[in-house]
Amino acid sequence: MSKGFYAILSFCIFGFCLYFNILNGEFISDDFITIVHNPAVKDPANLPAIWNAFNTRFLVGLSFSVNDALGGLNTSGYHIVNICLHIINTFLVYQLILLIFQAPYFKKRKLSIDPNRIAFYAAIIFLCHPLQTQAVAFITQRAVLMATGCYLLTVIFYLKARISGKSFYKIIAIFTMLLGMFCKELVITIPIMLFVCEMLFGEFKRENLRRIIKNIAPFSLVFVFLPLILHHDNTGTGSVLGLKNQMMKGGMDWHYFLTEISYLKTYIRLFCVPVLQRHIYVCPIIKSPLEISVLFSLGLTVFLIVTAIGMFKNNRIISFCISWFFVSIPVELIAVSVVKKPIIYEHWMYLSTAGLSLLTAYLICRIPSKGIMKTVFTIILMALCLLTINRNEVWKTEIGFWEDNAVKTPHNRTVQFALARAYDRKNNYARAIDHYHKTIEISPENPLAYNNLGVVYLKLKRDGLALENFQKAIALDPGAPAAYNNIGYLYFLKNDWAGALRYYEQSLTHRETPEALFYLGKTYLAVNEKQKARDSFVKARIYYRQLRDESKPQEISEILKKEF
Questions:
Q1: Crossing angle for the helix pair 115-128 and 75-100, nearest 10 degrees?
Q2: DSSP letters for 127-187
Q3: What is the 3-state secondary structure (H, E, C) of 406-440?
C-alpha cells in the first residue's frame, strides 16, 4: 500500500482519538445564534433563507441545515462533520507539502531530507496541535474549517497546473476558490499566496513576471466577487452574521490595529507554548505606537520578515513558512480593526498553523541523527496530544467551558455574562443571578445584563425585582425593545391590559418584533379591540414566516379562525 494510504489512516486514527471526547459536546456561545435558534437551518431546501442568514458563509449554513435535517439538535453529527473536515484539511496540508517538493525549484536540487517525512510530521503537528481545538470543537467555526479546505485545495491545484502544464487543474483551482468565498472571507488572500508560491518555488525571474501575473490574474476575481457577495448581506432580514452591518457601522481604528500588531507575539507564543488557552483573552487596547509591547511585536515582525528575505536564496522552505503566516493572518487583523471585535480568537490561527507546522517539521527533520530526530518528534507529538485531549475536556459542556474561562479571566464582563446565560439555560437560576450580578459589578452600564437578570426573576415569579431590572435596562438604553417587551409580558401575565398595551406599543416604536406583535394581539383581544388584534396578529405571522418559524404562524392562524 502507498505511503499516502498509511498517512490518511494515521490522520483518521489520531483525529478521532484526540477529538473523541467532544462527540457529545454541547452547543456553546455563537452556536445558539447560528444553529439552535436559527430557523433558517431548519430546511436545507430553503436556499433563500440560508442565503439571507449566512451570505458569505452560505455553504457553511447549508451544511448546518443538512446536519439539522439528519439529526436535529443532536450535537454528535455536527461534531463528526467538524472532525472529518479537520482530518481532510490535515491530508491537504500533507499533499501540499509533497507538491511543493515537486516544484521546479526543488527538481533542480538534491534534497538532503525526506519530503515524505517532512510532510507527514507537519501534517500530524497541524492535526494534533491544541491551538486547533477552537476551530474543531466550536461547531460554529466550521466556517474556518471549510474555508481552509478550499484555500488549501486552490493552492494545491494551482501548483498541479503549474507543474503539469494542464489548464484543467487551474480551472479546478478557480472553482475551489469560488467555493471558499461562500465559506469565510479568509480566502481573499489566495492570489497573494499564489504569488508567494511562484516566487519561491517557480522559475521566478524578472522576465517571467508578466507571465506569472497572467497566471494568477483569474484568482484576483476574489477581490471583486467577495465584496459583491458581502454587499448583498441582508442585515435585518434574517442575517445571523450581520457582516455588512458590522463593516458599515465600523471604521478603521488604528488603536485596535496597533493592539493586533502588539498581540502577534501572543499568536506565535500560543503555537510554540500552547498553555493557558481560553476563549476570551483580556487585551487592553493600545493607545500609542511607542508602547513596549507594540515595539517588541514590530521588532519580532521585522526580524521574521528579514529572515524570510535572507533565507530566499538558501532556504526557501523557511521563507515560505514565514510568508504563509503573514499572508494568511492579516484578514483577521484588519477585520478586528474595522469592526472592533475581541483582539484574539484561537480559530483565527487555524490556517496560519499550517505554515508554522511545516516550519517545526522542517527544523526537526534537519537534526542529523535519525534517532534524536524521531525522539524529539515523538516527545513533541505526545505533548501536543495530551494538551489537545485536556483542552477538549473544556469544550464538553457550556458551563464547564465558561467556568474555565472565568477562572483564567475572572474580571471579564463577556465571560461572566456568558456564564450567567449558560446557567440560565440549565435552569440553575441561583448561579445565573450570581453571575449576572458579577457582570453588573464589572460593567454597571450593561443594559442586557439587567434585562436578562429581570427575565430570571420573572421566571422565579419575583415580579418586583424583575420590573426593577427591566426599568434599569430601559434607563440605560431607552431604544432597546427587549426590556419593553418583557415589562409588557409581565403586565400581560398579571392581566394588567393597560400596562401591557403601553409597553408593547412603546416597544414597537423602537423596533417591530414578532413576539411583541403577537402578545399585543392577544392583549387587544383581551380588551375586545378585535380589529387592532387582527392587524397585530397578521403582522406577527408575516414576521414569523420570514424567520421560518412555522409553529407560531399556525397558532396565529388558529386564533384568527376562532376569533374572526
A1: 150
A2: HH-GGGHHHHHSGGGHHHHHHHHHHHHHHHHHHHHHHH--HHHHHHHHHHHHHHTTT-GGG
A3: HHHCCCCHHHHHHHHHHHHHCCCHHHHHHHHHHHH
The confidence score (pLDDT) of residue 340 equals 63
Judge if 467 and 542 occupy the same domain: no
C-alpha cell at 339: 469592526
pTM: 0.91
343 and 281 Cβ atoms separated by less than 8 Å? yes
Looking at the domain assignment, is residue 401 inside a domain?
no
Q: What is the largest CA-CA distance in the chain?
A: 90
Of 362, 394, 426, the domain-final residue: 394
Q: How many domains does the structure of the chain reveal?
A: 3
Q: What share of the chain is helix, strand, coil (3-state, %, to 5)?
A: 75, 0, 25
Q: Between helices 514-526 and 551-563, what is the axis angle to 10°?
A: 20
**Which of the listed ranges 86-90, 234-238, 337-341 does the model predict with the highest average pLDDT?**
86-90
User: What residue numbers bound the domain in which 449 lies?
Assistant: 410-477
Output the nine-digit C-alpha cell for 451: 434585562
Q: Check pLDDT > 60 for residue 484.
A: yes
